[in-house]
Design brief:
- The structure is a single chain.
- The strands form 2 sheets. This protein has a two-stranded antiparallel ribbon.
- Helix content is about 60%, strand content about 5%.
- By secondary structure, it is mainly α.
Length: about 140
């Protein structure tokens, strides 16, 4: 693919819906730190290297589950989501990550993510259920 075509596709991806590149890039960086190669990530997701690591872009809603499956297959006895949250700096999560990291409490941070889930992804719907000593998202 020519660099002009790649640049055009990148510009167009910023106009479409889908998952914000911040979140996908964070998950990809986590996968890379776990030893999964960029070639494996691009093969699993169908994205180019540039799309994988473009926090300003947007990717298809289908790409993140494909990446999660790749990570889960490689590390079946690992709590991937918890490790990922602990490893990824909130600065990589864009304005929502910044807001959550400055929230007065963990609960306030979770409520921010739930309230503004559409910032992360056009198709993401989240809710918060609090029962006794348990919170479910």
């Amino acid at each position: 693919m020519s660099s002009t075509a790649s640049a055009e596709r990148s510009r167009n991806s910023n106009r479409k819906g889908g998952l914000t590149g911040h979140y996908f890039a964070a998950a990809a960086m986590f996968a890379l730190t776990k030893g999964i190669s960029m070639e494996e990530i691009t093969a699993a997701t169908g994205l180019s290297r540039g799309d994988v690591m473009n926090p300003a872009g947007r990717v298809s809603e289908l790409c993140l589950p494909k990446l999660w499956c790749l990570i889960a297959e490689r590390f079946p006895d690992t709590s991937v989501a918890l490790e990922m949250v602990a490893a990824v700096p909130t600065t990589l999560l864009g304005v929502l990550g910044h807001a959550a990291s400055n929230a007065p409490s963990f609960g306030a941070a979770i409520r921010l993510f739930v309230r503004y889930a559409r910032v992360m992804s056009d198709g993401l719907k989240m809710g918060l259920l609090i029962q006794h000593d348990e919170i479910s998202i």
